[in-house]
Structures are given as C-alpha cells and as structure tokens.
Amino acid sequence: MRNERRIFLEKIIFSPDGEEPVEFYCLEQTVIGAKTYLLVTDEEDGDGEALILRDDSDIKDEQALYAIVDDDLELEAVAGVFRKLLAEDDIDLDI
Fold it and tell me: What mean pLDDT is predicted for residues 56-76?
C-alpha cells in the first residue's frame, strides 16, 4: 500500500492595488528564512498559470500583504523547494 498525499486547494483572493480582485487556488505553502511563500494557480484542475507569492505582512497588518516573487534568484530558489514538495504527488512545476 502506498501513502498518498491529497492536495486540497484553498481559494484565495488577491487584490492588487487599483485592480480587480483575482481568485487563485493555493497548491502549497512553505516557509524559507522566516518568510512564508504560497504557490498559487488560476485553475483548480489541469494546467494553469502558476505564481509564487511572498507574504510581506507585518504583525500589525489586519490583512495579509502578498507580493508576486519576480526576482529571478529568489524565484528559482523558492520554485526548487515547491518542485520537491510537489514531486511527491507527481505534479510538474514549470515556473
């Protein structure tokens, strides 16, 4: 018998300043260097666009403040962690 991890996708709403809110599904979460990162996609099933969001919130903030990770070095490092986490579920991550 093989242990299988099930992925339950939680829907989150990302509201960029001055733009319409966008819904994403959270695939995975990890903490690196005291920063929380979310791997999100725009599709609940199948192939979708994936982004990595970094939690830039302060303890005093009432709502979470996320930024899209766009620095190439940070993006590759965090994507590598997510690739390892998702490999257990046979999910390929192409960021």
Answer: 91
| Sign of CA pseudo-dihedral 67, 70, 74, 75 | positive
* 3-state SS class at 81: helix
Write down the pTM of the prediction. Answer: 0.78
State mean pLDDT over 31-35. 92
CA distance 86 to 82: 6
C-alpha triplet 67, 64, 95: angle, nearest 5°: 35
- Distance of alpha carbon 33 from alpha carbon 73, whole angstroms: 14
Distance of alpha carbon 8 from alpha carbon 39, whole angstroms: 13
pLDDT for 55 equals: 93
Positive/negative CA dihedral, 59, 60, 64, 68: negative
CA distances from 15 to 19, 46, 57, 69, 87 (A): 7, 24, 14, 16, 30
